[in-house]
Amino acid sequence: MRVFVLNNYPLDQVWEEVKRGDKPDHHLYGINYFYERGYEVHIVPFAGMRFLQEAGHLCRYIPVALGDLPQQSWLLARLAEVDLIYSPCQTQTDWLAYLRSAGLIKVPIVCLAHHPPNKGRLSWLRKPFLKVMIAGIDSFPALSVRVADMINELSGKSGKSQPLSWGPDADYYSVKSTGVGIVAAGRTGRDFETFGRGATMTKSQVSIICLESATRESFGQFGPNVKVSVSPDNSPMTYRPLIDIYAQARALAIPLIPGEHLGGLTGLLDALALGKPVIMTRTPFIDIDIEALGIGRWVEPGDAEGWREAIEFFEKNEKESSLMGRRARALVEKGMNSRAFANQVMDLFDAVCGVQTKN
Questions:
Q1: If you ran DSSP here, which 8-state letter would residue 34 be given?
Q2: What is the residue extent of each domain of the chain?
Q3: Which range has the worst mean pLDDT, 18-27, 74-83, 92-101, 174-183?
Q4: Which residues neighbour 83 within 8 Å (Cβ) at sequence distance 6 or greater?
Q5: Nearest to 169 by CA among 45, 26, 5
Q6: CATH class of 182-333
Q7: Distant-in-sequence, close-in-space partners of 104: CB < 8 Å, separation ≥ 6
Q8: In whole angstroms, what is the distance from residue 171 CA to residue 338 CA?
Q9: Neighbours of 319 (CB within 10 A)
Q10: DSSP, res 225
């Protein structure tokens, strides 16, 4: 069974990074395990057809999403070779989904949702087009229960989307459940300002690792215990050095700006795999309840005092912090990992392709 994969960044390059040990394999969203159940992976080229790339950029200014035009055009020209289309990113396959909804293509599509399907000022105008697009996707799983519910509501079918448990690469990380200080890093929707204000009210050793574009003048008011490390060329730190820094921390912090996004999920997976407790801004889009599972503490959005309390808790309670870290790692070892995620995706492949799963 030939699976052709579209993505919003060059997935073949990430696969090479994984092979070299530069990145954990959950960033591949299962494709490196597909061969185990007879699914042959073909990655659609990310770059090419410049005129379609330019057209795609222009289409961002209209309410009808068309997805990645170069990748979809490349795929349409080879449709006879395709048994299944898989997109780990929900923004790539819109045009193909319209065609499938109209009955013009027969190849099933599985698309993974990371974020709410419809948001912003023109959501009312996009809604009818989204309904047609979603109808053309055979299975539209999501990384969040709330996002899955939104997709099902738009589709009018309760089974169109279901939440999948994305888990980290269990073998990539060196587990170290003790350490010193708190580290916060990341790019998507981070509220480093509130976190830094809270950390300044403590005596704890705190590190913020961010892009230059994420810095604010207010960072200059942080206390001497808060170290801000900035990438001057606005490119993120490579994965292995970042994980080495995480490994030395007592706990990891994920401060978030409120919004309809799954920002912070990747960092949370890093914490689980490393066996680190986590302090995180409360968000309804993250399904892992860190307090209910005993692996961390929530902080309310914009609550600097809440950050102070949480940071001081972990600094003063090394044994409890270590226990939380062990619980976090146990989740990974018991099944919340990249291999289990790949099997969930392949179960959906089996369903849309009519493959009989062997028990």
A1: G
A2: 2-167+337-353, 182-333
A3: 174-183
A4: 1, 2, 3, 107, 353
A5: 26
A6: alpha beta
A7: none
A8: 10
A9: 8
A10: T
pLDDT band at 51 (very low <50, low <70, confident <90, very high): very low
Rounded to two decimals, the pTM is 0.92
Q: Does domain 2-167+337-353 have CATH number 3.40.50.2000?
A: yes
What is each CA distance from 97 to 66, 87, 340, 354, in whole angstroms? 9, 11, 27, 19
Distance CA 235, CA 213 (A): 10
User: What are the structure tokens assigned to 231, written together?
Assistant: 């990438």
Kindly report which listed range (59-63, 136-140, 211-215) carries the lowest average pLDDT score: 59-63
pLDDT digits (tens, 9 = 90+) for 113-166: 999 987 766 676 778 899 999 999 999 999 999 999 999 999 998 899 999 999
Quickly tell me which residue has 């060196």 as its tokens: 174
Six token digits for residue 249: 């921390």
Containing 183, the helix (H) or strand (E) segment is strand 182-185
Per-position DSSP letters for 258-279, written without gaps between them: -SSS-TTHHHHHHHHHHT--EE
Please tell me the number of Cα atoms within 13 Å of 176 on its side-chain side.
14
SS3 content of the chain, % helix, strand, coil (to 5): 45, 15, 45
Distance CA 68, CA 45 (A): 11
Q: What is the mean pLDDT of residues 325-342?
A: 97
Task: Return all residues near 304 (Cβ < 8 A) that are at least 6 apart.
Answer: 194, 195, 197, 198, 201
Contact 272, 251 (CB under 8 A): no
- 2-167+337-353 matches 182-333 in fold: yes
